[in-house]
Protein 1
Amino acid sequence: MLQDLDAILLARIQFAFTVSFHFIFPAFSIGLASFLAVLEGLWLKTGQQRYHDLFKYWVKIFAVAFAMGVVSGIVMSYQFGTNWAVFSDKAGPVIGPLMAYEVLTAFFLEAGFLGVMLFGMEKVGRKLHFAATCMVALGTFISAFWILSVNSWMHTPTGFVMGDNGQFLPGESWWDIVFNPSFPYRLVHTVIAAYLTTAFAVGGVGAWHLLKDRTNAHARTMFSMAMWMAALVAPVQIFAGDMHGLNTLEHQPAKVMAMEGHYQSHPEGAPLILFGIPDSERERVDYAIEIPKASSLILKHDLDAPLAGLDTIPEEDRPPVGIVFWSFRVMVGIGFAMLGIGLWSLIARWRGRLYDWRWLHRGALAMAPSGFVAVLAGWITTEVGRQPWTVYGLLRTADSASPLDAPAVATSLVAFVVVYFAVFGAGTWYILKLMAKSPHPGERGVKMGERGPIRTAGITPGPTQNPGDPDSLPRNRKEAE
């Protein structure tokens, strides 16, 4: 049976599976690191213990999410050499240095200060610890900066020259590569999405504890902060998404055609198809619910502006319409639902019922995982919409894969599925277990063992010896030595 499968399709499924698992955790840790910095800053400024308690409550969750993000990212990167060796060979001179910069700047910065943030609260001064927390938050942003630069270059490649051996080589300026045309839009849209993902996760946890005890001061604080984020940032994200869409229309029109479900060109204004069932064989959207000329208004700011359709794109260069069409609607639908929750919270806050409006709390709890679904739907729209290219318009996916047989790729795919669901499923369960516990005064934060953190490169200190305790003295000469 495995002999009949397509090795390239299996390799794409494997990469999509691993990158989807991976991105859930960075999307959470990027926003959560900044949230921790805000909490600690408020504690230092106001001296209110509840901010300190919430910091220690959420830093435990951050530690687990950050660790799973690092592990899943390392595993994912190996696929460039195993399943996509041709792509790595051809695009390596451009994307390799950018990914190395991510390690040398962001990862080293995070690793250097993470231990201080997790274990140094009682060992260094408050200001130094706050600086370490800020450095970890900055490191997560820098990491997103470099990775999104790499990804954006694959969508809008610039600043390169083609070598005699078919490789993409850096041109005269690295800045043209780093700041490629789609990068600023993708960076803003993705980072804001990470902040909203965290806000709704925090808001969902706060709502859960308010439903159990509406007088819980810690739950009130986290819920209020999350709802402010939803109310203020969701409209900004919708605007940023619109700008990103206009940039995509300029550089990747076929993707926007698939997102909109426009199989045919519309010379006198294109409709906005809200829902429907794309039929690529007949090149139409069945049972379409649409608003006449609204797509032209959104994309061209003119009701009568003409919009080209997929009939202007060669069939072999078209992305899969069905997946892109629906994933885009999932992302947009969740975005407007987030806006709705934010506006609802403003009404509740204005009426003085933010902490006892139980239907609002139920809605926020239901929306707790919405950010994760939205970012996955957004990435599906972006990456599937780029097909059939890995480097848009220049290197096809079919020409990027390693010369592997289908059984080899299928075997590793099955292994990834089993291991990922076991390991990261357990980690996710543990995070949910931590969230289920109510924050309380005197939170302990990340616990250390009796001997403290392990000194990997040095000597792990033994227990403190007490002359009055016979168990602390060496039992023989060899142990004493």
Protein 2
Amino acid sequence: MPSQRDGNYMNVDSDSDISLLGDGDGDYHLRGKNKGKGKAVDKKKKDKGKSKAKDQAYTWEASYTRSWDTVQEDEAGSLQGAVEDWIARGRRRRLLAPAAAIRRTIIRHLILLLDLSTSMMDRDMRPTRFDLTLEYAREFITEWFDQNPLGQIGVVGMRAGIGERIGEMSGNPQDVLKSIADRHRLEPTGEPSLQNAVDMARSSMSHLPTHSSREILVIFGSLTTCDPGNIHDTLDACVKNKIRISVVALAAEMKICRELCDKTGGQFGVALNEGHFKDLLFELVPPPAQRAMTRAAGSGATNPAADLMMMGFPTRLPDTSPASLCVCHSEMKSEGFLCPRCMAKVCDVPTDCDICGLMIVSSPHLARSYHHLFPVKPYDAIGSLADTPDAGLACHACARIFPTTALTSTSTEGMSPLNRYRCPECHNDFCGDCDVFVHDVVHCCPGCGK
């Protein structure tokens, strides 16, 4: 019987976890549970090569590992040029937007469809598509309610082949944000069903009045959809009910998603990266323009006459008022709002009275919704003071003194080298910061009030 270790022979028990490694020259080395001993030279080289490959970033990770390259300093070491480019892009976007009054729907109802399938766990968008979608959805809901205070949002999820109602349609942004706050409750699983989710969203908006808009926003990350029937029948029902569907795709363009948007008048876009994903999402914050009705045979008007709708402005109760039951939650509260028609008490506005059905709004909410109908015209960039001899010395809004010489030698499209912008209506001059603040926040010119 040969010995346990005789030359190149070694008796190894069959159920042992020790394996043989040969280096090609007849020398064998033991590899057991003690991984620090007995490794072959070529194995070390392979491990060294693997560790070196792990240190190198993937191609799709380059934008994250060197994210500081996206903001470049100028010759003087300042970041002012990068900031001006960002402001210039916003100004060019405002210049391309229609400045004339457009008929829009200020009372909006939106259903947010979230893809909760396993494809949302892909890491092509960091940290994952799912986490990034939840983060952008929270920002979108906050901005949407800020720009559309009279609107309502509901949330529906797509996972495991069904449509799941995550949040009821509500006009309170805190309730909508609370419905998507628990990440573990929304854990992705299974395949999405576009037809089931759209049907659920359509049925939840069937009772809405005709003067309000019906919109569906789909954030879709999968390349497949598991539908129980013909999705084109659902599409025809959405067209009949005048529901506008918009899709933001995270993977690639699908023909059915494109048809959903084209036939209903919505917007479709494929996110190229995280920044583009957010841009596509926030383009849907302003209310869409109302589509003209199809011209009927023998009729001259393309749109029906505008109908008046009844609204009520409630009376706000102070905190020191005696506690009473509210009709929305049946809880004893001191503060609240009284319906002007039936004197019922509600907690928040805007809302619909649960007793008489009157739409209760506050005057600031109604006034803020009107800025979409009458947008502030883009200010003209002043290139030199030779054409404007009567120019003021300071900004009309913040009283900051304008520079007398050009701030930059290079001219950027849409930017004024003198940091001076003039309102085409009142001909008052504003600085760059006030220009951005007026068009993005105030939505009203301080000089002319338009």
Protein 3
Amino acid sequence: MRVILQPHAGSRLHQFPNKILLLAMFSTCIGGTFQCGYNISIINSPTKYVQDFINQTWRQRYQTEISNNGLTLLWSTIVSMFTIGGFIGVSIGGTLSVKLGRRGTLLANNVFSLLASLLMGLSSSAGSFEMLIIGRLLIGINAGIALCVEPMFLGEIAPTSLRGVMGTGSSIFLTGGILSGQVMGLKELLGKEQYWPLLLSTTCIPTLLQLQLLPWFPESPRYLLIDRGDKEKCKKALNQLHGSEGSDIVLEDIQKEKDNLVGFKAKKPWELFADRSIRWQVITIIVLNIAQQLNGVNAMYFYADYLFRQAGISEDNIPYATVGTGACECLTALTCGMLVESLGRKVLISGGYLLMSICCILFTVTLALQNVSPVFPYLSVACVFAFVLSFGLGPGGVTNILTTEMFKQTTRPAAFMIAGSVNWLSFFIIGLLFPFIVIGLQHYCFLVFFVVCLSVGIYIIVVLPETKNKSFVDIQKEFQSRWSKETNFDEADALLISTAL
């Protein structure tokens, strides 16, 4: 069945993403956010085996056992290199997207994942845990670039009325990658000790898929016309992606944005902080990306194993229950994709954070009463799933869409660099501090996450306008009409005057 969505005023009806757009989304995301999610979860299953390998390698080199502190340090280095690589990747992703194009950057990015796959796969045979460290750094760079450029590319190839549906592709494939990594780590597949190098090297599979598929699709039409000034290639790309009937409307929208940006060049991240016309957009992406890491979803996953044991689930079956939480997040990401154009971005993301804040309170109460009645462990497990569902339904799926929609062509790459840098730094910091927070506050740590989720939910309700079915120019104008009090003649005023004309 085909679904018809009502676009913004003045445009024709657009069908649900045609097969070309869906294939373009698949080929983009399979080597991007899917790859990122896969490498987030795949490292968990072989933890003990990799630690045994480090211990054995140390013994062979130095004829002595490695200390517990030394082993912990090396293991934490292997894990944390992914976040350091992510920060490096997002720092260069925006610049590369301007120089190489969106699609060109995604294709070039596969070099990092192929090298990472080779290093991690051969680390055991070579007897080198250093290869694991470098491999995790490289795959982190790959993830950082992908998370910066992929949502930008999807938002720019989609017509206005389908931008939300296409944008949720990133979160759907991210959660799909996490789930796939959990499944691949089961003992029935590659979760046995002798298979851990093969398990880590399977990251090359989505890379090879992207290299086979993505070259068949065109570069971002907005990049071709606005950044490169190539109208013929832009028309050709639009015809391939949207068909000849829908391409004229999109071309008109892109040309309108280009006319508004005459004389303006792509900005650097630090220039965005000095631009008063987009002050609230910058503040908003910083708030949303910090909140994505500090909202407690990682803490909820941390407590999941403990709660599954409390609920009577056997040790052997806990990995399958954990896969269930991953499946829930994947399901809600799909649900978000179906609802984002009907309910809108603001309702989903604010509602998601408010539901998460309620779950934090309930979870704290049920954890405090674990020994009062045998029913409370099951209520706690229900809170885990409710929290994960709330995250996937709103914050997990909508954040990247908003980063795409709140900025114009000249500021979008820099905005993604800022958003990604904040996100990866927050990821790194929470990874370092989270164990101490749990030890110090125990289950009362969720009161901290309650404050974060509630505050962000209120901030979104007060500050963020609805962006559904609005062009990038219209969204910019709405932010300015809400918050601009000064009338300096800068890019913002040029935009407003030219659109009024």
